[in-house]
């Protein structure tokens, strides 16, 4: 399309549409993470694994996520944000198919790691892409769509798992064509993964990447379509000036040249990424069915609770969507941290007083304790998803200067997924060892730590252009 046909004032609708395409990666991130929730029993039976083996099968994807996040930023600096998202879409398709056909633990782990590479790449590239095409005045709102997409993917996986198990009579029963239900749970992901791949072919590359790569004519065309001709010329000069460090982005840029120490902004990014996981949110998302069955609920009720938690999460994300650019990032973070510390403490309290059924090994919650655990856990999920869930991704996508955005996101993403792996892999062991109450006590402690971290370390980024970021 010729540049003369671009709207002179740019196209907000176009910006929103291409941002939504990028966030399909977030939807798949959520679906791929949440689908495992209903398949744990099937994996145990199919592969005859113990609690440690099951924990590794469930968390194996996260190793791929860590590697994908680490290299995605650097590869995206070389080949482009859109290009990396296309590769991620292809990996999502391969992983969804392969996880369902796997006949051994090794096969399953390999396909899940491939899916993890896709999730890791999408987790850092989708917010980066959105932050690089959206104007500052509503960048936070558009980037927060990423978390809405993640939670929508989780909820879709929970609902899909629930419906498939309901039709078959259980996750380990045969469903269609002689295949067990848990396998069909993975295959459901093929539909959104294919949509993602096709939709990516219709969006432009990030203009900031194009400027950094010396493709100024293409950058000019994309910027004109995004912001209009007059604004595009100004924006292109601003991007060029901010990249006047005269070299391609590289990992050594994360160090302060004079001292060779890691830049403070990188430590803040790592802290945000790690603390988002250490509060234990993915225990709820990955092991929700196991968790609620351990607390005495049936499999059907546990899967239904997952759907409720996912729906509550979407509502929470919508609050952030409307207020993140008005209230700011930092107030949402510290408020969420304080609320999570309280609600996690209440969950631990409810579990602590419950006796154990000696035949099943599950807790026997009284009606009052069960209601307290259910309300507090869902309040915790709500608070996470109106604060740390979306806001962490918003900040990682915008807090780093242009020169180190790809590398900074890579390191923070690596830290986030390694923390995710540790929390996810250790939960079955903690459950069998110290129990639910003590495990939730650990997550409560880190929620309290996150309050102090936000107050002391995090700087507000609301309303700032990306070219204004320093660190």
What's the arrangement of secondary structure elements?
Layout: H1 12-34, H2 40-47, H3 51-79, H4 81-101, H5 105-133, H6 139-168, H7 181-187, H8 190-200, H9 207-212, H10 216-227, H11 229-242, H12 264-278, H13 281-294, H14 299-327, H15 329-352, H16 367-385, H17 388-398, H18 405-433, H19 435-457
Descriptive tags:
mainly alpha; 471 residues
Shape call = globular
State the CATH topology.
Growth Hormone, Chain: A
CATH architecture: Up-down Bundle
Largest sheet: none
Which residues sit in consecutive blocks of at least 5 with pLDDT less than 50?
1-8
Going by CATH, what is the homologous superfamily? MFS general substrate transporter like domains
Number of domains as seen in the coordinates? 1
Structural class: mainly alpha
Q: Give a count of the beta strands, DSSP E runs of length 2 or more.
A: 0
Strand content: under 5%
Folded structure, characterized:
This protein has 471 residues and is an all-alpha fold. It has a single domain (3-203, 245-468), classed as MFS general substrate transporter like domains (Growth Hormone, Chain: A, Up-down Bundle). It contains 19 helices and no strands. Helix 5 (105-133) packs across helix 17 and helix 10 packs across helix 11 (229-242).
Summary, kept brief:
The chain contains 19 helices and no strands. With 471 residues, it is mainly alpha-helical. The chain has a single domain, classed as MFS general substrate transporter like domains (Growth Hormone, Chain: A), CATH 1.20.1250.20.
């Amino acid at each position: 399309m010729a540049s003369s046909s671009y709207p002179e004032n740019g196209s907000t609708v176009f910006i929103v549409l291409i941002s939504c395409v990028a966030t399909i990666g977030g939807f798949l991130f959520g679906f791929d993470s949440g689908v495992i929730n209903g398949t744990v029993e099937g994996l145990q039976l199919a592969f005859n694994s113990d609690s440690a083996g099951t924990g590794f099968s469930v968390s194996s994807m996260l190793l791929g996520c860590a590697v994908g996040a680490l290299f995605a930023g650097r590869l995206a600096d070389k080949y482009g944000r859109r290009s990396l998202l296309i590769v991620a879409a292809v990996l999502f398709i391969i992983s969804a198919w392969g996880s369902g056909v796997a006949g051994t633990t090794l096969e399953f782990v390999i396909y899940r790691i491939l899916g993890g590479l896709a999730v890791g790449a999408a987790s850092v590239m989708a917010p980066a892409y959105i932050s690089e095409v959206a104007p500052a005045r509503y960048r936070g709102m558009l980037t927060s769509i990423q978390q809405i997409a993640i939670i929508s993917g989780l909820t879709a996986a929970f609902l899909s798992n629930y419906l498939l198990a309901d039709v078959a009579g259980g996750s380990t029963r045969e469903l269609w064509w002689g295949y067990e239900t848990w396998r069909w749970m993975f295959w459901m992901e093929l539909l959104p993964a294919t949509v993602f791949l096709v939709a990516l072919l219709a969006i432009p590359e990030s203009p900031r990447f194009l400027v950094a790569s010396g493709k100024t004519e293409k950058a000019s065309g994309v910027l004109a379509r995004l912001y209009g001709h007059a604004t595009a010329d100004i924006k292109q000069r601003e991007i060029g000036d901010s990249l006047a460090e005269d070299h391609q982005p590289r990992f050594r840029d994360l160090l302060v040249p004079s001292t060779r120490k890691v830049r403070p902004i990188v430590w803040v990014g790592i802290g945000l990424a790690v603390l988002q996981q250490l509060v234990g949110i993915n225990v709820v998302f990955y092991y929700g069915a196991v968790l609620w069955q351990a607390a005495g609920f049936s499999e059907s009720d546990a899967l239904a609770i997952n759907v409720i938690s996912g729906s509550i999460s979407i509502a929470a994300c919508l609050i952030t969507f409307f207020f993140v650019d008005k209230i700011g990032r930092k107030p949402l973070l510290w408020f969420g941290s304080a609320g999570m510390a309280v609600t996690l403490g209440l969950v631990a309290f409810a579990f602590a007083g419950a006796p154990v059924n000696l035949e099943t090994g599950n807790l026997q919650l009284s009606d009052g304790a069960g209601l307290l655990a259910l309300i507090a856990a869902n309040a915790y999920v709500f608070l996470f998803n109106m604060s740390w869930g979306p806001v962490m991704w918003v900040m990682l996508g915008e807090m780093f200067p242009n020169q180190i955005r790809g590398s900074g996101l890579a390191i923070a993403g690596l830290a986030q997924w390694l923390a995710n792996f540790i929390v996810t892999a250790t939960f079955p062991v903690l459950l069998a060892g110290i129990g639910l109450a003590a495990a939730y006590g650990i997550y409560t402690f880190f929620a309290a730590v996150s309050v102090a971290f936000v107050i002391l370390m995090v700087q507000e980024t609301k309303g700032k252009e990306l070219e204004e970021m320093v660190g």
